[in-house]
Amino acid sequence: RTVYLNGDWVDETEARVSIFDRGFLFADAIYEVTAVVGGKLVDYAGHAARLKRSLAALDIPMPVSEEALLTLHREIVARNALSDGGVYLQISRGAEDRDFLYSDALRPTFVMFTQARAVLDNPKWKTGIFVVTMPEGRWVNRQIKTVQLLYSSLAKMEAKRQGADDVLFTEDGVITEAGSSNAHIVTKDGTLVTRALSNALLHGITRASILDLARAAQIRVEERGFTVDEAKNAAEVFLTSASAFVMPVVAIDGQPVGNGKPGPLTARIRDLYIEDRL
Ligand code: PDD
């Protein structure tokens, strides 16, 4: 693959980042993942806007203009002839001798790469996925898309060991999110329930899009916390993210959700998203 590193296009084997990079030493970095389907970026405006918010929250300067950012996204897709997958980008505060306190003059480290993946043809979409619940152990400012992903990674590995596909994080009895996506339920009376936005969860771009589309389609939407029991007894449970779009959950902690098959409202919401955003 051709990757982007601080203004240069280089082969992935040539790209080098300093061991003193604060992304590496302090997880002092933010990231974005934008899906690509048929060579086109999906929901790009939302990802670009959240990137700006994450950088502002950490007081890291935007390394390129907004126009250049879009051009870079298009160019990396073209250079790698990417049809389906995603564009990953990471911006760290930069590299300097290790110190908790950083200097003002640091130049951010900006890398981008593509990953080819069947986004729409994911076979799991037809069967749904199994998840297990785990106590929330990530940091408290989850609305910032930082690379502080150690706990998420350990939790997803543990879920895999338990034979599940993903994890649902729980805090005070309420589900915050899945391992790398937002979690939603459909109640038996057909209401889509999703946790309201706060610092407890990442403000998913896919989440925002499906809520807009659901409301426009007269689907009842409630933004409030829901418990593990509510999720286990819901008609449907699904996850949303730029890498999975809309993914049905068919079992939680080994207990089937609904009839143990992907549900109709989940399918409808996925169709609405695909029709409108792709
Ligand atoms: N993850 N919650 C968390 C913790 C996430 O990491 C993500 C995205 C989401 C969904 O956000 P969006 O709809 O904007 O992708 C929610 C990306 C895909 C990743 O880490 O690969």
Brief overview:
With 278 residues, the chain is an alpha+beta fold. The chain is built from eight helices and 15 strands. The chain has two domains: 115 residues, 2-Layer Sandwich (D-amino Acid Aminotransferase, Chain A, domain 1), CATH 3.30.470; 154 residues, D-amino Acid Aminotransferase, subunit A, domain 2 (D-amino Acid Aminotransferase, Chain A, domain 2, Alpha-Beta Barrel).
Explain the layout of strands and helices:
Elements: E1 2-5, E2 8-11, H1 22-26, E3 29-37, E4 40-41, H2 44-58, H3 66-79, E5 85-92, E6 109-116, H4 124-127, E7 129-135, H5 150-161, E8 166-171, E9 174-178, E10 182-186, E11 192-194, H6 205-216, E12 221-223, H7 228-232, E13 236-241, E14 245-252, E15 255-256, H8 264-277
Parallel strand pairs: 7-8, 7-14, 11-12
Antiparallel strand pairs: 1-2, 1-6, 3-4, 3-5, 5-6, 8-9, 10-11, 10-13, 13-14, 14-15
Helix pairs in contact: 6-8
The protein binds N-(5'-phosphopyridoxyl)-D-alanine.
